[in-house]
Design a protein that fits this description.
heterotrimer; A alpha/beta (309); B alpha+beta (676); C mainly alpha (133); A: 309 residues; Rossmann fold; 2 domains; 6-stranded mixed β-sheet; 5-stranded antiparallel β-sheet; 10 helices; 16 strands; elongated; C: 133 residues; mainly alpha; Arc Repressor Mutant, subunit A; 3-stranded antiparallel β-sheet; 5 helices; globular
C-alpha cells in the first residue's frame, strides 16, 4: 500500500473567458482521508472536480489522480474511481435493474450485494423507471452504482444537494461505511456543514477560485477565533487587524472574528480600550460561515435608524 | 461496447421508428398517387410518363428520399450528442473504465444502425414492392436501385455532419453549422458524378473526414488544443470547405441582388410568315419587326402586333438539331439527371388499350397490363427484321429530344443513326422509312404536328410522311459544326418551302442566319440574315461576376480548371482573373499570420495555418477563426506584457505566473499522520 | 452498557469533546462503573454516524485523562481513576467552569450562600457512588 497522495494538483487553473474560476490550485489529498471541499456557490468546486476526472481540460497546470495524469486517465484508473455528480443525472428511460446491469458490464469488480444493499436501503424497486424516482431515490441509485465497483477513491460533488434528511443521513452512513477500509479515500464537496463536521478529517476551502484553507478540521476550528469587546459608549473604528475575517458592531459591543489570534492581535485590540475582552468559543459551522462570508465590517441588513421607536 | 450500443439503440429507437413511419407514409402516398394516375390517365391521350409508372426512376420518389435521408441523418446525429449534453449526464457516460474512442465508436455504429432502420427499411420496402411482380407495370432492373442507394448513403454523411454540429461547444453558433458545408459539397459531387463507384468514393471520403472531426472533438470534449492530430486536420478541412461555400454563397447573393449580371431576356428569332416573308420576333420587348427594322403593328388598334396575332399568320414549321457524332448520353443530360432518368433502362413506347409497351435497353419490347400490373408480353424488337440497337447511344437522339407524340397510341419513330424506322407496338412491326447509310448517316429528325417528319442526312434535307413517301427534298451540304440547327417551314404557295439554318449558340453573334426558299426541289432564292445577339452577360456585369468569384482561391481555380481540361477536354489557360485571385489569397495569408501572432502560436502551428491559407484562401481564414480558441490574456508579472493564460511560461520573458495574492486569512497545515 | 451519547453538530464544543464529556459525566454519575466495557471506536462511530477518527480522539483524550484504557484484543474499559493531573493543572482546568457557574448564578440573583448550599447538595448526591476522593 503506497502512501502517495491519491490526488495531487499543481498549479491547476481554469478560465472561463477572461475570468479565472480556479486559480493555481495546489492540493494534496492523502490516502485514507475523508476530505471535504468547501466554498461558496460558484467558487470553482465543481470545475475542480470535473478537471480532476478528465472531463474538463485545465487551462493551465495539471494533476495526478491515483498516480495517473488527469489529462489522460486510463480505463484501469477510472475503474478505481467512483464519481457521484451533483444532480445524479441518469438515463431516465432505464429501469433500476437495467441500469445496474448496464453499469455492471463495465466494471471488472462489481459487487451485486453492495448494489442491492444500497438499493434496498433507499427503498428502490428494481422495476421502477429512473424517471419515476424522487430526487433522494435517484441519489440512492447513483450512490449504489458508484459504490458497487468498490472504488478506491470516491469523489462526490455536493451529494446531499436537495436531499431530504433521511436520504442525507443514509448518504453519510454510506460514507462512513466506506471508511472501514483504511485505503479508501473520500473527496467530497458540500454545503452541509453539519455533515462535514461529522464525517470529514481534512478540509479545503476555495475562496472564489483561490485555495485559502487546507488543513485538518481541528486545525481550522482552532485557527478561527471570535473576540468580544465591550465598550462604555459606541465602539471606536476598528484598526486593520491581521487575519481579520469579520467585525460586527452593535451599540456597545464589537464582535470580531479572525484567524491565527495571537499576542499581536490581542495587543492591537486592547489599544481600543475596551471595558472587557472575551474569547467566546465558536462552533464549527459559525467558524465556516465567518470564514466564507464577506470580509470586513458589517451590521445587520436594515439600518439601525429604522428601528427607532 | 455492446452495452453502449444497446443503450444508444434503445435511447433513440423511438426517433428512428418515427422516421421509418414518416418515410413509409410519404413513399406510399407518392407511389399510390402515381399508380392511380397512370391507370386513370390510361384512358386519355396524354403521353406516358416513365416516372409515374416506375417509382424507382421517379424524381418525386428520389427527391423525397434524398431530402428525408439528409434531414433524418442530420437530426439523428445531432440528437445522439445533444441528448447527453448535460454535463452530469455526459460525466456519467464518459467516466467509466472504457476508452473514450470505444464510447465514440459505439455511438457511431448504433447511429448507423438506427439510420439504416429509420431510412433504409422503408426504401428497402419500396424496392421489394417493385421487385414482386404484380405491383409495378414497368420493367425493373437492379441498376435502378443505384440512385436510391446513393441517396441513402449520402444521409450517413449528413449524420456525421449532425454529430459534428452538436459536439462542438463553440460560442459562435454559426461555426457549429460548418459541418454541413462538407455534406453539401458531397451532395453536389454526387449530383455531378453520380455513377456508383464515384459516388461511393465521395461519400466515403466526406464521411471519413467528418467522422474524424467528430472523433477528435469528442475525445477532447470540444476543445481544440487537446485534440489528436487527425481530428484537428479533419475539422480544419471541414470548416474550410464550409467557409469557402459560405464565401461563394455570399458572392452569388451579391451578384444576384446587387449587380444582376444574369440577364434573362429571351432570344430573338426569325420566323417565316405563310407567304415566305421573314420576320424577327423579339419576345423580350414583344415586338415583331420586318427585315427593315419596322415594327409590325396591328392595323385596327395601332398597337404593336401581339405574338398571338402574328402566330396566326405564321407558317407551320419543324426544327431539328443536327449532329452526326455520338456524344455521351450523360453529356447530353448531365450528371444526376441522366443517372436517374428512366431512359437509361427503358422508354415507354406506346399504349394499346390497357397495355403499355416499353422499349427496353435489351432491345426488346415488353408489354405490361395496367390492370393486373404484370408483364404480359416480351418480344425482341422487330423480331426477324435484322434490326439491332446499341443502348444508349442509339437512343439518345430519339425519344428524348425529338419525339413529339400527342397520342401515345400512335407508333413512333426510332433511329439507329443510319436508318430511320417506324416502330409499332401494336403489331410489333418495324418499318424502314429511310435508309441513310449511303448518305453518310442521319444527323437528326423531328416529327411535325401534322404527322410529317423532317429528316436530315449528310446529303439531303427531306420532309417525309409516315409511310415513307417524300414530300420535299433538297440537297444539303452539312456545314457543321457552325450550323447545327435546321428549320423547315411550309409556305402557302404550292410545293414551296423555306429553310432556315441557325448558327450555333456561341457563334450566333458572328455568323449570319442562312435562309433558302425552295420550290419543286429547286432553290429559288438564298439570303443571309443578320446574326441575332446572344442573350447573356453584359461585359460590365461579366467583370462584376468575375470579381465576386475571386473569393475562390487560386489553387482551387487552377485545380478545377485543370481537371476540366483533362476530363472534359476543354481548353484551359491561366487568365488574368486567376492571377487576380491571388490577391485575396495574399490577404488571407496576412490576416492569418496576424491572427496567429495575436494568439502567439508556435512556429509550427503558424506554418501549418499558412499552408492552409495559401491553398484555401478566404476559406482557410474562416476555418481558422472557427476552430481556434481565444484564451484570455493577462499581464505578465515579470515583463508586464500581455500573455496567454493557458501557457505555463510567458511568451516574451519565459516567466511563470505569480500565485494568487494572499490576504492574510490562509490556514495551511500539512496533513498529520494517520491517527490511531 | 448504559452509555447513551448524544452529539450535536454546530455546537461550540467539538464533537470529540462532547463524547469525552458525556463519558466523564456518565462515570461521575455512576452510569458507567469501573471495568465496564465501552463500544469499540468503529461501533460507536457507526452508531453515532461519525468519522471514527473523532471517536478515536475522544477515547485518546479519555485515556490521557485516565478515565479509560484500551486493552489490545479485548476492548476499551473504564478504569479506576488515577490522578494524572498535577493539582495546579487541575485548578487551571477548573477555573473556566467556575466562571461559568458563578456567572449563571449571579445572573439569576443567587446569593453566594445559596450557591454554596446547592453545590454541597450536589456533591452529597454524587458522593455515595463516587468512592474515595
Amino acid at each position: 500500500m503506497n502512501d502517495a497522495p491519491v490526488i495531487q494538483t499543481h498549479g491547476l487553473t481554469r478560465y472561463y473567458g477572461a475570468k479565472a474560476v480556479v486559480q493555481d490550485l495546489n492540493l494534496e489529498i492523502p490516502r485514507g482521508s475523508v476530505f471535504a471541499f468547501l466554498g461558496r456557490n460558484g467558487s470553482g468546486k465543481t470545475t475542480t472536480i470535473r478537471m480532476l476526472l478528465g472531463l474538463l481540460a485545465p487551462t493551465r497546470g495539471g494533476g495526478r489522480v491515483l498516480g495517473c495524469d488527469i489529462r489522460a486517465l486510463t480505463p484501469d484508473v477510472r475503474a478505481r474511481i467512483g464519481y457521484l455528480t451533483e444532480e445524479h443525472r441518469l438515463y431516465d428511460w432505464m429501469k433500476v435493474k437495467e441500469i445496474g446491469e448496464f453499469q455492471a458490464a463495465f466494471y471488472p469488480r462489481w459487487h451485486p450485494k453492495i448494489f442491492s444493499g444500497v438499493i434496498g436501503h433507499f427503498g428502490l424497486r428494481p422495476e421502477a423507471r429512473v424517471k419515476e424516482l424522487s430526487r433522494g431515490q435517484r441519489a440512492g441509485l447513483a450512490l449504489a452504482l458508484t459504490l458497487a465497483p468498490d472504488p478506491e477513491l470516491l469523489i462526490l460533488d455536493d451529494p446531499a444537494l436537495g436531499l431530504d434528511p433521511v436520504a442525507r443521513r443514509s448518504l453519510v452512513e454510506s460514507m462512513i461505511y466506506l471508511t472501514r477500509r483504511s485505503d479508501r479515500t473520500i473527496f467530497f464537496s458540500s454545503h452541509n456543514l453539519g455533515d462535514v463536521e461529522r464525517v470529514a478529517d481534512q478540509i479545503a476551502v476555495l475562496d472564489y477560485s483561490v485555495l485559502r484553507v487546507c488543513c485538518s478540521l481541528e486545525t481550522f476550528r482552532a485557527s478561527v477565533q471570535e473576540v468580544l469587546l465591550r465598550f462604555a459608549g459606541a465602539p471606536p473604528p476598528l484598526p486593520p487587524i491581521p487575519g481579520l475575517l469579520q467585525a460586527f458592531r452593535t451599540a456597545h459591543e464589537l464582535r470580531v472574528t479572525c484567524v491565527h489570534y495571537n499576542r499581536e492581535t490581542e495587543a492591537a485590540l486592547r489599544k481600543l480600550s475596551p471595558l472587557s475582552l472575551e474569547l467566546p468559543p465558536l462552533g464549527l459551522e459559525d467558524a465556516f460561515i465567518s470564514y466564507l462570508g464577506e470580509r470586513g465590517e458589517k451590521s445587520f441588513i436594515l439600518a439601525d435608524a429604522e428601528e427607532e421607536p | 461496447m455492446k452495452q453502449l450500443f444497446i443503450k444508444e439503440w434503445r435511447e433513440h429507437f423511438k426517433a428512428a421508428l418515427l422516421a421509418l413511419a414518416t418515410l413509409s407514409l410519404l413513399l406510399i402516398l407518392v407511389v399510390w398517387n402515381d399508380l392511380v394516375k397512370s391507370v386513370v390517365l390510361a384512358d386519355t391521350n396524354s403521353s406516358l410518363s416513365a416516372e409515374m409508372l416506375q417509382p424507382l426512376v421517379s424524381s418525386d420518389v428520389l427527391g423525397i428520399s434524398s431530402f428525408f435521408c439528409a434531414i433524418f441523418g442530420l437530426l439523428l446525429g445531432w440528437l445522439q450528442i445533444q441528448a447527453e449534453k448535460h454535463p452530469d449526464l455526459r460525466a456519467f457516460l464518459l467516466h467509466r473504465p472504457v476508452e473514450r474512442t470505444t464510447i465514440f465508436w459505439s455511438k457511431v455504429l448504433s447511429g448507423g444502425a438506427l439510420y439504416a432502420f429509420g431510412a433504409g427499411v422503408p426504401l428497402a420496402g419500396l424496392v421489394i414492392y417493385v421487385l414482386i411482380p404484380g405491383h409495378i407495370p414497368a420493367p425493373f432492373e437492379w441498376a435502378m436501385v443505384q440512385p436510391l442507394t446513393n441517396v441513402f448513403l449520402l444521409g450517413l454523411v449528413f449524420y456525421a455532419a449532425g454529430l459534428l454540429t452538436a459536439v462542438r461547444p463553440v460560442r459562435w453558433y454559426g461555426s457549429r453549422v460548418f459541418g454541413l458545408g462538407l455534406a453539401f459539397l458531397a451532395s453536389y459531387a454526387l449530383f455531378k458524378w453520380p455513377d456508383f463507384l464515384r459516388a461511393l468514393a465521395t461519400i466515403v471520403l466526406a464521411g471519413a473526414i467528418l467522422v474524424a472531426a467528430v472523433w477528435g472533438a469528442f475525445l477532447a470534449g470540444g476543445t481544440w488544443r487537446e485534440q489528436p492530430g487527425p481530428g484537428k486536420l479533419a475539422l480544419s478541412f471541414a470548416c474550410t470547405v464550409a467557409g469557402l461555400l459560405l464565401c461563394l454563397l455570399a458572392a452569388v447573393l451579391l451578384m444576384e441582388f446587387l449587380f444582376r449580371p444574369f440577364v434573362n431576356t429571351p432570344n430573338s428569332f426569325y420566323q417565316f410568315s405563310r407567304d415566305g416573308v421573314v420576320y424577327r420576333v423579339n419576345p423580350g420587348a414583344v415586338t415583331i419587326e420586318d427585315l427593315d427594322g419596322r415594327i409590325l403593328r396591328d392595323e385596327k388598334t395601332g398597337q404593336n402586333l401581339s405574338e398571338e396575332d402574328f402566330y396566326k399568320t405564321m407558317s407551320v414549321h419543324v426544327s431539328t438539331a443536327v449532329n452526326f457524332q455520338r456524344p455521351r448520353p450523360e453529356d447530353q443530360l448531365g450528371g444526376w439527371r441522366w443517372y436517374c432518368s428512366s431512359t437509361r433502362y427503358f422508354i415507354p413506347w406506346q399504349r394499346t388499350d390497357k397495355t403499355v409497351w416499353y422499349l427496353t435497353r435489351a432491345g426488346r419490347f415488353a408489354a405490361y397490363d395496367l390492370a393486373t400490373r404484370r408483364r404480359v408480353d416480351d418480344q425482341e424488337l422487330g423480331a426477324g427484321s435484322g434490326v439491332h440497337f446499341n443502348w444508349p447511344e442509339d437512343f439518345y437522339q430519339n425519344a428524348i429530344f425529338n419525339s413529339f407524340s400527342t397520342d401515345p397510341r400512335q407508333p413512333r419513330l426510332l433511329t439507329s443513326g443510319q436508318t430511320l424506322y417506324r416502330v409499332d407496338g401494336a403489331d410489333r412491326t418495324v418499318k424502314t422509312l429511310l435508309a441513310a447509310a449511303n448518305e453518310g448517316g442521319l444527323g437528326g429528325y423531328a416529327e411535325s404536328a401534322d404527322q410529317q417528319v423532317l429528316v436530315v442526312t449528310r446529303k439531303f434535307v427531306r420532309l417525309m410522311n409516315l409511310q415513307g413517301g417524300v414530300e420535299f427534298q433538297t440537297s444539303y451540304d452539312a456545314v457543321l459544326p457552325d450550323y447545327p440547327q435546321i428549320t423547315l417551314s411550309r409556305l402557302d404557295a404550292a410545293n414551296e418551302f423555306a429553310l432556315l439554318f441557325n448558327p450555333g449558340y456561341g457563334l450566333s453573334p458572328k455568323l449570319p442566319v442562312e435562309v433558302e426558299w425552295v420550290q419543286d426541289g429547286q432553290i429559288l432564292r438564298q439570303q443571309k440574315l443578320p446574326p441575332l445577339p446572344v442573350p447573356g452577360v453584359d461585359p460590365y456585369n461579366r467583370r462584376v461576376e468575375e470579381c465576386c468569384l475571386l473569393v475562390i482561391p487560386t489553387s482551387l481555380r487552377v485545380g478545377v480548371e485543370e481537371f476540366f481540361h483533362v476530363y472534359y477536354k476543354q481548353a484551359y489557360h491561366f487568365d488574368r482573373w486567376d492571377a487576380c485571385s491571388l490577391i485575396p489569397v495574399g490577404f488571407s495569408l496576412l490576416i492569418g499570420w496576424g491572427l496567429g501572432r495575436r494568439l502567439r502560436l508556435t512556429f509550427r502551428e503558424q506554418a501549418a495555418w499558412a499552408a492552409f491559407n495559401l491553398i484555401f484562401g478566404v476559406g482557410g481564414v474562416l476555418a481558422f477563426l472557427s476552430v481556434q480558441e481565444w484564451p484570455a490574456r493577462e499581464r505578465c508579472p515579470q515583463c508586464q506584457k500581455l500573455r496567454r493564460v493557458d501557457r505555463e511560461h510567458c511568451e516574451h520573458c519565459g516567466g511563470g505566473f505569480a500565485p494568487p495574492a494572499r490576504n492574510g486569512t490562509e490556514i495551511f497545515a500539512p496533513a498529520p499522520a494517520r491517527p490511531v | 452498557m448504559n452509555l447513551n451519547v448524544v452529539i450535536s453538530t454546530g455546537s461550540t464544543t467539538p464533537i470529540y469533546k462532547q463524547i469525552a464529556d458525556q463519558v466523564k459525566l456518565a462515570v461521575a454519575t455512576g452510569r458507567l462503573a469501573v471495568a465496564d466495557q465501552l463500544p469499540s471506536v468503529r461501533t460507536l462511530a457507526e452508531s453515532l454516524v461519525l468519522n471514527p477518527n473523532t471517536v478515536a480522539r475522544a477515547y485518546a483524550d479519555l485515556a490521557r485523562d485516565g478515565v479509560l484504557e484500551s486493552r489490545p484484543g479485548r476492548g476499551v474499559f473504564i478504569i479506576q481513576k488515577r490522578r494524572v493531573f498535577a493539582r495546579e493543572e487541575g485548578r487551571r482546568r477548573l477555573e473556566p467552569l467556575l466562571d461559568a457557574l458563578l456567572g449563571e448564578a449571579m445572573a439569576m440573583d443567587f446569593t453566594p450562600e445559596e450557591l454554596l448550599a446547592a453545590v454541597a447538595k450536589k456533591i452529597s448526591q454524587w458522593k455515595p457512588e463516587k468512592g474515595a476522593e
